[in-house]
Write a structure and sequence with these properties.
The protein is of the alpha/beta class and 263 residues long. It contains ten helices and ten strands. It comes from Chitinophaga niabensis.
Length: 263
């Protein structure tokens, strides 16, 4: 990430912190309950500990991987080798997000989860540890293989890995797996592909599904993608948490609702 990019992102984040709301004045019962009972539930759970212990091990790892196509969201330059610890430090979502994904799976009784972008599999593990069958797509075979070792260490047997270009794998997979209850889109980080993934996914998800988009303020292009997704007729409620965005498609929301909330 360039210095200019860091400065621009920091400015956006400061603006978000000053303008984001909380439970006060939140007039949607659905959003209020989600905020109060899921987003703000920071109680430790026994499922978290093994994943965080693994994270600490990976952060100490000197292992080097040859990688291919980390996408537009890569933070680590243009070389084709990465240390595992650097992938975890720069590309893995912090614990509070993985734990949020775990709680969302629990909240919505998600049986089938689809993830675009496995990386080292920490977020994948959080969702699988909540009981869902997780299908996760990773573009780099070596990263996928390293993630598979992590799943083995954690004893998770309810994860199915799919390796290849999202543009090719996603349409096929959506036709093969049960309708997803939750989709986490964490890869590519470009405007047009992000919108396209949304358009493909909304044809196949359950009406009660939640779609999670990573890094919605990462670039101007990702912000445009986020606005396009929010404005789409299928989107009835959105929650902007700055580093991620949540999208709901529920028919019971007769009027579009958009919230920016502190997290």
């Amino acid at each position: 990430m360039s210095v200019q990019h860091q400065i621009a992102l920091a400015r956006k984040y400061i603006r978000y912190r000053f303008t984001a709301g909380n439970r006060h004045g939140l007039h949607s019962p659905f959003a209020y309950a989600l905020l109060d009972e899921v987003l703000y539930d920071r109680r430790p759970r026994p499922e978290y500990a093994p994943i965080e212990a693994l994270r600490q091990q990976l952060l100490q790892s000197e292992e080097v991987l040859e990688v291919t196509d980390l996408g537009a969201g890569s933070l680590m330059g243009a070389t084709n080798t990465r240390k595992v610890r650097d992938i975890v430090r720069h590309a893995a979502k912090p614990p509070k997000f993985g734990q949020l994904f775990h709680r969302l799976v629990k909240r919505f009784n998600a049986a089938t989860v689809l993830e675009l972008g496995t990386s080292m599999g920490l977020s994948t593990a959080y969702m699988a540890a909540a009981g869902a069958n997780v299908h996760t797509i990773e573009g780099c075979p070596n990263i996928a293989a390293r993630a598979a070792k992590n799943f083995e260490v954690l004893g998770l047997r309810n994860i199915r890995q799919h390796i290849g270009n999202f543009d090719i794998v996603l349409p096929r997979l959506l036709n093969e797996i049960p309708a997803p209850d939750l989709i986490y889109i964490d890869g590519n980080h470009r405007e047009n592909p992000t919108v396209q993934y949304y358009l493909e996914c909304i044809k196949k998800v359950k009406p009660t599904a939640v779609l999670i988009f990573d890094d919605v303020h990462w670039t101007d292009g990702m912000e445009r993608a986020w606005e396009t997704i929010k404005a789409h007729p299928a989107t009835t409620l959105s929650i902007d948490l700055f580093f991620i965005g949540l999208i709901f498609l529920r028919d019971e929301f007769k009027v579009k609702q958009h919230f920016t909330l502190k997290f």
